[in-house]
Amino acid sequence: MNRRRDILVGLVLIGAAAVAVVGTLWLQNYGWGGNERILQARFQEVGQLMEGNDVKFRGVAIGKIRNIEVEPSGDAVLVTMRIQSDVQLPSDPVVILSPESMFGDWQAQISPRSSFPNYTFAEAPEPDVLPGYALPDISQLTAAADQIADNLSTLTDRVEMAFTEETAHNIASAIDNIQLVSQRLGQLVGQQAQTFDDLANRMQASADELGSAARAARGTFQRVDTLLAAGQVDSLLTDSRAAVRSIRTVSDNLAESSQGFQSTLTRADSTFARLDRITGAIDSGQGSLGKLLQDTTVVSRAESALAQLQLLLEDFRQNPKRYVRLSIF
What we know:
The chain has a domain at 35-138. It has a 7-stranded mixed beta barrel with strand order 1-4-3-2-6-5-7. It has helices spanning 2-27, 138-162, 165-230, 233-283, 287-294, 296-318, 320-323, and strands at 36-43, 54-57, 60-70, 77-84, 93-99, 106-112, 129-134. Strand 3 (60-70) and strand 4 form a beta hairpin. It is α/β, with parallel strands linked by helices. The protein is rod-shaped. 62% of the residues lie in helices and 16% in strands.
């Protein structure tokens, strides 16, 4: 009886151990049919990741974390994962570690690298080891929040120190100045717009004048084409040749005349030289005319003779019979 009870207790213990082993293996997602494969990923840190946490792809659990170990060099952490072998992973897979719930559970999410272009992944020298990145955990976020709070407190203190009543007045004055400057800029822009309008009008007028000149030039070219087509160019060239010959004849005549005029000028120069010598001789008292001009008594006698001649003419006018006697018979 005791022996049977001992055997029964032993069987119960063996069954409990088998159930524990099988349950543990099931919880750790050990495969029984060989339809799983092993993946490894490299991380700078793993946060609160533990063995047995889920490995997910597109939000679906496809495996478990099997092992977590630090590399011998101490530069990174190597995480071994066991996933389903029939899952088709992306061409550029990376592993993201992140909190799965608010209770401290973590997960490993397999995603394409292109989905997280701003993350710096821990690259592995081995090509079969996936690069990984761990999101900050609650403690890191809390520390970052504390640092941000300290920075905000410091910034608030500095703002309170800088933003005094005088600063407020200065800012208000600066706003007024900015408004005044904006108004002046608006006026300047209006003036420049008017200037541009005037310039555009002048350019339009110049364009119109150029158009008129182009039309006149086109008309001239058309008339030239008409003359060319009518055969009047030959007659114009003939007339031009005749005119050139006439001009050449006139120029030859002018050349001959200029030569005669040159000889005339030469004779005139000789004549003027002689007159100059005569005038000099007269001025020096040479000759009869010079003596006449130099002798003042001749002038006095001439004036006396003229006076007597004038008295004679006056007497002749008053008594003509005294001088003229007319007898018919």
